[in-house]
Amino acid sequence: MNAEADQAPADAAATPRPGRSCPTHYHYQPSAFRAASAVSVETVYVIGGLYGNGEALHAILRMQEAEARAGRRVELVFNGDYHWFDVDAPTFLEIDEAAASSISIRGNVETEIAESSPFGCGCNYPDDVSDAFVGRSNSIMARLQETCRELPSARQALAARPMFRTIQLGDERIGIVHGDAESLAGWSFAAERLSASRSDERDGPARTPLAAIERYFRESDVRAFASTHTCLHFARDFDVDGAERLVINNGAAGLPNFAGTSAGLLSRISVDPRVPRDSLYGIELGGLRFDALPIRYDHSRWLESFTANWPEGSPAHQSYFERIAHGPRFEVRDALGGRVQRPS
After folding, report:
1. How many CB atoms within 10 Å of residue 153?
2. How many structural domains comprise the chain?
3. How much is the pLDDT for 251?
4. Which domain range does residue 221 map to?
5. Which ranges of the chain have pLDDT less than 70?
6. So what's the pLDDT on residue 114?
7. How many helices (H) and strands (E) does the chain have?
8. What is the DSSP letter of 7?
9. For residues 293 and 117, what is the distance between their CA atoms, to the nearest angstrom?
10. 144 vs 2, 63, 245, CA distance in Å?
């Protein structure tokens, strides 16, 4: 849930470090996507990192309604961390109902709400994230868990949601994950891990090895992975055994995604090859159209709601207010990899 992190070592669960490691039950094999049943859809919005932003949810529902008026049925796919700042029960329940009535998986936030563990927020932060930031994330989680102690049925429902899913669009299967192809809290699909250009495939110290990406796609047999978790958006295609594959990370639906802006972001995937009017960037691949769409929510109302729950000096305000108010140090050009490009 920050811009920079690494996957935890295989034995990280042996010595829990709250916020910096994750349990062994967060892990799965890429081959599990082959056996997973797939729900068939024509167009989806993949919504990751809503972070309890009710205004962003309302904007997404308006976007879905606009598509319906144009004759397109859009299914909502929540791929984790739809909760985070929503420590008031009414907002929590509204967001959870939306996820429950849609295609959904759980992220580390939902997993730790359902059953708290010694792993704090379950974010799997690396050592280059400050102890202060990690500590504040653990404090946010503790307060959210306190809210949910009075909502046992919601906690049970979260526990029952899967860690990943597979969806079918046309002839293609798409892996829906929160983190990456091996872990609910993995960081292999982070922007800084995949940002090498096609002309420079060398594996740096913080790079996901190309061999690992190829293995993920060979073992899973999916056309693309749609992820979130790392809080910065990125999309890049890969050639694996002569077939084009894609990793698309929507960043955060409930937070600004570019410097000086206030819009969230979702990943739209469709069998319709037409480029959506609001597309910020995208690619046609495997007969499908993949696009990043802005979520233009009421920013003033969201700031008011956020500060009501998290006033100045609170853990969430200290960690996130600057991004909410001004966006991250990230531009659209930073999100483009491989053949992914802005509409002409």
Report:
1. 8
2. 1
3. 95
4. 27-265+275-335
5. 1-14, 196-206
6. 95
7. 10, 12
8. P
9. 35
10. 18, 28, 37
